[in-house]
Design goal:
Blueprint lengths: L1 E4 L5 H13 L3 E6 L4 E6 L3 H5 L8 E5 L19 E3 L2 E3 L5 E5 L6 H13 L4 E3 L17 H14 L2 E6 L2 H7 L5 E4 L7 H7 L6 E4 L6 H13 L5 E5 L17 H8 L4 E3 L1 H5 L5 H10 L4 E5 L17 H17 L5
Bound molecules: phosphoenolpyruvate (PEP) and manganese (II) ion.
């Protein structure tokens, strides 16, 4: 339920509305826009409905929200969410590029990749230390050692860092080192992990599950937000379809669909969506055109030797070319990069 206050409501009447909500054991979420002040109500609203909240002084109207996700819902918060990662803004009129290797493989590999990411204009370095691999015999990641290399690369380059966590144990370790926590496609509905991520005070980037609908994805975001962490970034990384020419199918329409449903920032990952290096550039341009807030791109100093996802990784030169190619498109849509 959303309670919309009248334009010139008094402080006293506003407080009274909050008291009524909280007095019934419900939670009030405030959203102050330029012209409207909304109070989103979370919890079992039956008792509140009996109080006829639309009749409370200075209440303009009451809107029922049928979607099960509330805090992630655009109806609850009309202004787009901008997440400030220590000076790097995700959302608003900024365009952010996260780049780095699929997996952190060694100190030198990561540092070399971090330098390439920075040279190409990325603001955030990605790198997996806990890898969710299809086969248990594939490289599983350097775990905490990899996190230490990530932190060293941040020191050396000034880039912010993001890493994926695959368990609560990994989350506990990663939160000590990185700026943004990533929850991958395979864990999008790992509800216990989502709840844990909701209790940290760092932004969380939630990738879309392999076969998740947009509503399931937004409900997963709600799990994080309902625990108190509202700094959630969504990342479209392709979905499973019948098509086999690409690793997944980039659901480019997810970006405008999400824009109509949520205020959260949206990133596109063309690397995992396509699995093919040659398609990264056109898909990145498509992401810019549909108004994504940024990209996540896999790069590697020598993709042929990468321990994972080499076929979709760009080398430093190709990454430089990509960002140079994207710049005019990004300014055309009125964003800063
Ligand atoms: C990744 O970003 O390293 C990754 C494993 O991606 P996804 O969860 O989208 O498969
Ligand atoms: Mn990868």
């Amino acid at each position: 339920m959303i309670i919309v206050m009248k334009q010139n409501y008094s402080k006293e009447n506003f407080k009274n509305v909050i008291n009524v909500i909280e007095g019934l054991g419900l939670t009030a979420h405030l959203s102050k826009g330029e012209h409207t002040t909304l109070i989103g109500v979370v919890g079992d609203k039956r008792a509140l409905l009996k109080e006829n909240p639309e009749l409370l002084p200075d209440v303009d109207r009451v809107i029922q929200v049928s979607e099960t996700y509330k805090l992630a819902n655009k109806k609850f918060k009309t202004e787009p969410t901008v997440i400030d990662v220590d000076g790097v803004k995700i959302g608003g009129d900024n365009f952010v590029i996260m780049a780095g290797p699929c997996a952190v493989e060694s100190h030198d590999q990561l540092l070399e990749t971090a330098n390439a990411a920075k040279a190409g204009g990325a603001q955030i370095l990605r790198g997996g230390a806990y890898k969710p691999r299809t086969s248990p015999y594939s490289f599983q990641g350097l775990e905490e050692e990899g996190l230490k290399y990530m932190a060293e690369a941040r020191e050396a380059t000034g880039l912010k860092i993001i890493t994926e966590v695959t368990s609560e144990h990994a989350l506990e370790a990663a939160v000590k080192y990185v700026d943004i926590i990533q929850i991958g496609a395979r864990n999008m509905q790992n509800f216990e992990l989502l709840k844990e991520a909701g209790r940290i005070n760092k932004p969380v980037m939630l990738k879309r599950g392999l076969s998740a609908t947009i509503d399931e994805w937004l409900n997963a975001a709600e799990y994080i937000m309902s625990e108190g962490n509202e700094d959630v970034i969504l990342c479209e990384r392709g979905i499973r379809t019948f098509e086999t020419s690409t690793r997944n199918t980039l659901d480019i329409s997810a970006v405008p669909v999400l824009r109509s449903k949520t205020h959260l920032p949206i990133i596109v990952d063309p690397s995992h969506a396509s699995g093919v290096r040659a398609y990264i550039s056109p898909l990145s341009k498509a992401a810019v055109a549909v108004d994504a807030d940024g990209l996540m791109i896999e790069i590697h100093p020598c993709p042929e030797k990468a321990l994972s996802d080499g076929a979709q990784s760009l080398n430093p030169e190709a990454f430089n070319e990509l960002t140079a190619e994207l710049r005019p498109f990004i300014s055309l849509v009125g964003r800063k990069f």
